[in-house]
Amino acid sequence: MSKITVLAGGLLMALSVSAYADERMKVAAGEEVFKRCHACHSADPSKNTFGPSLTGVVGRKAASLPRFNYSAALRDSGVVWTEANLRKWVENNDAFVPGTRMRHVAITDPAEQDYLIAYLKSLK
Question: Taking the model in full, what pTM does it have?
């Protein structure tokens, strides 16, 4: 094995570790942002509170979680919770889906949105 191969492998491993650490930091920061959501939403998949559980929300069709009474506006929206749609929702849910019952939270900082989405993606 050449020195270049060993160096390249070591560099790839270091980048992987660095990316992993960066993602863990985003998730931890997102958990802090989620505290604004936690008053109404659970991170426990078996527990709906005032709002539905957000475990598994990324990639899920809006208003599809059983045992929660969603607004007609959200049920009829056809929205799937992609990262882009989650950003629109947390920035201005009233504008994104008019007629929803969720109060407006206005997380407009893109970095906070990144952190929150990283945290939501970790909830499986």
Answer: 0.82
